[in-house]
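User: Predict the structure for this protein chain, please.
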Amino acid sequence: MHNFFLRPYPLEDRDRWSKYALIAGAVVFFFLFFLRPFGLATYPGNIFLVSLYFTAVAFALTLLYGRLVFNPWAKLVKVWRVWHQILAFVLLLCFISVGNSLADSAFFGGRVSWMRTLAYLYPTLIIFIPIMLINISLGYQKRLRTRLAEMLPKEEPSKETGQTVTFHDHNVNGTDLTLPVSDFLYAEAQKNFVDVCYRREGRVEHCQLRSTLTSVLADANVPKIFQCHRSFIVNLNNITAAEGNSNGYRLTMGDASCVVPVSRSYVAKLRSFI
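Assistant: Here is the predicted structure, written as structure tokens:
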């Protein structure tokens, strides 16, 4: 569980807070108009207008929070993680609760107090925190399916500078292949040969070696190069896109022309790098 909270959580478009504000407003309207908490059931006035008033408040507060608090905060954090997302939602709920307590005083009259604020905060947290956790969990699973490439940690380019790898050709007259680790994309076992795919001067090239995938993996001896299929090994740093689920992924390596499968038995190993 501790590792889950520390996992990267790629953010959606930061300009989508208008949509989130509409959702928050709709939830508040449904909650107030149909469930009628906080004594609304005995309110003699127009409950529809009251619900609409607090809906507008929730909409404005969510939009304000997103633009003035969340977006600047997210820009300062190098790697946004699950615990950041949970804390951000809790702060949003607190922000809305405090705003609603002030709106309550303005609409119904009465003195602003901590008791009134807590009266809004407590049921808001009790009701919406389970919804929030489910939403974040589902959002995380969605990101695993569609944005896994962003969640995989990449080495800084400076750390790879000058680091090379040599893949040995076991043919009698074979020639070993030496290249920078950063240029290696993937290798595929093909009967008695291994096809090594790599970049050279911006172009994708292939080299067939008389070897086995096990030998090539041993030659690499780099943590970010791992086996993802019985016939493939890949360089984590060169994964540009990943789509799939627990039954398997398809990894785009370098550009759209290089696609490598991840078999079901290796999915857990791939996710362990997150």
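The mean pLDDT is 88.
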